[in-house]
């Protein structure tokens, strides 16, 4: 197994607050790697640096042996790192199919954009349908996106991300606000996505983290306090202390 993505001493300070502090992190290709930690541990800030939304205060980000530290978000997306967007990226007035189609079209053509040469139209259509199937929305294909349930909206959001063909997928709390049923469906979908993409997942749902992840990295107060397999993390005293009072 090879490391596809890593950080070295990655740090982000907000004035005197060390939100992320010297984190070394490595993800093996083709695995699901979870990042956990109490509220305010620095997980989302860490992601924001990986996607180019925050410039690191110090450290390096290496993707497929290339130093991508400090590159802007649109370049990082084009290099193959996808992040689940906020709901606002969905066009509520368009159908599920139209939303995915626009996202697929954006990856076609000589220059990125939504105009596409006629010869590619069938291919775009096929790819859009395939993505809709992969995120389990085929039956809602013609439905207006604004009318989807919260769980289905999240699925569509993920569909829009995978439309860009990312190698590495970053998910920040994909099951937040979901019912138990929806969470289980999302878990199945993540497992399915992991067949084609490497996944880094921030998640508070420990059952989900423990059953899906190959490796888990634990952050607390911006620092990495533990790393290992689910079994190792469960038995780690530092982690249990960090989560005092929470079942893990
Ligand atoms: N843009 C910002 N400016 C100043 N401080 C920030 C900013 N973003 C995050 N922080 C602070 O950095 C710390 C880490 O926040 P972050 O959102 O990364 O935590 P988190 O681990 O994602 O927490 P949660 O589990 O609640 O989502 C917090 O103390 C937060 O208040
Ligand atoms: Mg967060």
Explain how this protein is built:
There is one protein chain. By secondary structure, the chain is an alpha/beta fold. It has two domains: 1-80 and 166-248, Rossmann fold; 87-165, no CATH class. The protein contains nine helices and ten strands. The protein has helices at 43-50, 73-79, 96-105, 121-134, 150-162, 180-193, 206-212, 230-234, 237-242, and strands at 3-14, 17-28, 32-36, 58-63, 66-67, 81-83, 168-172, 198-202, 215-220, 223-228. The chain has a six-stranded mixed sheet with strand order 6-7-8-3-9-10, sandwiched between helices. It has a four-stranded antiparallel sheet with strand order 2-1-4-5, covered by helices on one side. α3 packs across α4 and α3 runs parallel beside α5 (150-162). The mean pLDDT is 90. Bound molecules: adenosine-5'-triphosphate and magnesium ion. Magnesium ion (MG) binds next to α1.
Rg over alpha carbons: 18 Å
Q: How much of the sequence is in beta strands?
A: 25-35%
Regions with little confidence, pLDDT below 50 for 5+ residues: none
Assigned CATH superfamily of the largest domain: P-loop containing nucleotide triphosphate hydrolases
Which compounds are bound in this model?
adenosine-5'-triphosphate, magnesium ion
* Total E-strand runs: 10
């Amino acid at each position: 197994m090879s490391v596809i993505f890593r950080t070295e001493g990655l740090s982000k300070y907000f004035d005197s607050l060390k939100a992320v502090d010297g984190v070394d992190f490595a993800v093996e290709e083709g695995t699901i790697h979870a990042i956990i930690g109490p509220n305010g541990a620095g997980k989302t800030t860490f992601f924001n640096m990986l996607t180019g939304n925050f410039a690191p205060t110090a450290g390096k980000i290496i993707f497929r042996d290339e130093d991508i530290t400090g590159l802007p978000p649109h370049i990082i997306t084009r290099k193959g790192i996808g992040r689940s967007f906020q709901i606002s990226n969905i066009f509520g007035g368009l159908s599920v199919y139209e939303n995915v189609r626009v996202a697929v079209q954006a990856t076609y053509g000589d220059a990125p954009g939504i105009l596409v040469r006629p010869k590619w139209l069938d291919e775009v259509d096929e790819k859009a349908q395939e993505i809709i199937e992969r995120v389990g929305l085929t039956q809602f294909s013609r439905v207006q996106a604004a009318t989807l349930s919260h769980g289905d909206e999240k699925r569509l959001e993920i569909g829009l991300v995978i439309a860009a063909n990312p190698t590495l997928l970053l998910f920040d709390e994909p099951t937040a606000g979901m019912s138990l049923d929806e969470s289980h469906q999302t878990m199945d979908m993540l497992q399915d996505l992991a067949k084609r993409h490497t996944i880094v997942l921030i998640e508070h749902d420990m059952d989900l983290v423990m059953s899906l992840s190959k490796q888990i990295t634990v952050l607390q107060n911006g620092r990495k306090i533990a790393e290992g397999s689910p079994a190792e993390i469960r038995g780690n005293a530092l982690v249990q202390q960090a989560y005092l009072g929470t079942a893990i």
